[in-house]
Amino acid sequence: MISVQCARHEMFRPKGCVDLKKGEQFVYTDYALVNALKGTEDIERVVLSYDINCQYWHHLEERMQDN
User: pLDDT by residue (tens digit) across 10-59?
Assistant: First the structure.
């Protein structure tokens, strides 16, 4: 499961939890991240903690534009 949590309030973000169906594919993480960040344009900083974050950031901008 992928989940996006607000560190300040220690709550899961709405629509920020996604079940992994066929392994850890970035599409599931992208979906959870985009949905969790909707309506948070006034937030100055977002910090991601992900066990494969070094790989996740590669081509993130391209994946976001495609979807």
Answer: 888 888 888 888 776 788 888 888 888 888 888 888 888 777 778 888 88
The CA distances from residue 52 to 3, 7, 11, 65, in Å, are 14, 19, 22, 21
What is the rounded distance in angstroms from the CA atom of residue 62 to the CA atom of residue 9? 30
Phi, psi (5° rounding) for residue 12? Answer: -75, 140
Q: Do residues 5 and 11 touch, judged by C-beta distance below 8 A?
A: yes
- Bridge pairing between strands 11-18 and 2-6: antiparallel
Contact 35, 15 (CB under 8 A): yes
